[in-house]
């Protein structure tokens, strides 16, 4: 089989390796599609440091092509269409055993997976050996759509961290794919949603995804608009989906008393931010982080994509064949796409 391997900054090579043999407790999946996440884009550009060689890819849609002798074949059959929930959590720490594997103490992007020649998440390979607990059925939609289950699962977790209530005013800062998914889920949760971005085209799509108000922060003051729309009460929930530390303070300034600021993105560079501890004390708002997802999030994300409760087709900006995977990365890092998807 073939796999795409990072050997350095902007050095991605397709190489041949042995097809994994099915072990008794594993399932062999043939990858149909793998979306290029921002995380892998940062590996490609050198912003995210990994030990080379490294196999990326974790937004995966696939088909089962073989099952081990110990696998329950009532649940998992050859030909089943599945998405893969990355097995990066250790499974052994207190958080994993409490069902909070998204916050695993040893969350590891660089595991050596059985059947692959190098460390990494493995989705940029033609085949993978996986455990059944990490795969989830999907139906009705294309593999390109299903590959976006992983990012949607992360946003499911983010929105549940915020505990959105009917009638809440929710602000989403940043309208890339993750911001758009936050807009869609928040609006379907009964909230009034304000989308904020510098790009009018992205704001137009946010409107179609359910945003009630759109603020272009290049020409409008977000705080002024939030005060106007909320009649001075500010936002119950603020999602910051950008990697820009300066915007954290902006998020804090527009959150209501007892509200929540949710920091969704990783931050590059990771720099300290300031806030008023007295206002936090008196206002009772909270600042929460969210990263990754767990199996419960994956189950629901797969269902929503299968039924197009959340329609992810507008976020598939480009599809490239596996033979052109590096061209796909060069396209993705331009920053003008939602998702570039590699099709096998």
Automatic annotation (TrEMBL):
UniProt keywords, alphabetically: Oxidoreductase
Gene3D superfamilies: Medium-chain alcohol dehydrogenases, catalytic domain (3.90.180.10), NAD(P)-binding Rossmann-like Domain (3.40.50.720)
Residue span, Alcohol dehydrogenase-like C-terminal domain: 179-306
MF terms in GO: oxidoreductase activity
Cell division found in the keyword field: no
Residue stretches making up the Alcohol dehydrogenase-like N-terminal domain: 24-136
Keyword Oxidoreductase recorded: yes
Lineage: superkingdom: Bacteria
InterPro entries: ADH-like_C, ADH-like_N, GroES-like_sf, NAD(P)-bd_dom_sf, Zn_alcohol_dh
Name this protein carries in UniProt: Alcohol dehydrogenase
Upper taxonomic lineage: Bacteria, Bacillati, Bacillota, Bacilli, Lactobacillales
């Amino acid at each position: 089989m073939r796999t795409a391997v990072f050997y350095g900054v902007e050095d991605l090579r397709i190489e041949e390796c042995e097809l994994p043999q099915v072990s008794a407790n594993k399932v062999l999946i043939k990858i149909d599609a793998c979306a290029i996440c921002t995380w892998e884009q940062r590996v490609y550009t050198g912003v995210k440091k990994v030990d080379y060689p490294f196999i990326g890819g974790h937004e995966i849609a696939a088909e089962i092509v073989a099952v081990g002798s110990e696998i329950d074949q009532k649940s998992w059959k050859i030909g089943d269409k599945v998405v893969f929930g990355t097995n990066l959590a250790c499974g052994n720490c207190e958080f994993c055993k409490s069902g909070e594997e998204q916050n695993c103490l040893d969350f590891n992007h660089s595991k050596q997976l059985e059947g692959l020649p190098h460390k990494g998440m493995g989705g940029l390979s033609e085949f993978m050996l996986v455990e059944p607990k990490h795969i989830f059925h999907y139906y009705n939609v294309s593999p390109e759509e299903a590959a976006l289950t992983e990012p949607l699962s992360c946003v499911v977790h983010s929105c549940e961290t915020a505990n959105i209530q009917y009638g809440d005013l929710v602000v989403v800062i940043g309208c890339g794919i993750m911001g758009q998914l936050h807009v869609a889920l928040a609006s379907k949760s009964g909230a009034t949603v304000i989308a904020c971005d510098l790009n009018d085209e992205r704001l137009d799509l946010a409107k179609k995804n359910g945003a009630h108000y759109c603020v272009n922060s290049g020409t409008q003051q977000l705080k002024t608009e939030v005060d106007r729309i909320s009649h001075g009460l500010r936002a119950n929930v603020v999602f910051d989906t950008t990697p820009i530390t300066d915007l954290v303070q902006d998020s804090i300034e527009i959150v209501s008393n007892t509200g929540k600021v949710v920091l969704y993105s990783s931050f590059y560079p990771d720099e300290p931010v300031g806030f008023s501890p007295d206002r936090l004390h008196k206002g009772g708002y909270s600042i929460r982080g969210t990263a990754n997802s767990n199996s419960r999030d994956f189950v629901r994300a797969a269902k929503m994509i299968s039924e197009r409760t959340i329609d992810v087709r507008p976020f598939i900006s480009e599809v490239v064949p596996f033979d052109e995977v590096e061209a796909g990365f060069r396209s993705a890092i331009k920053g003008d796409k939602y998702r570039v998807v590699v099709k096998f």
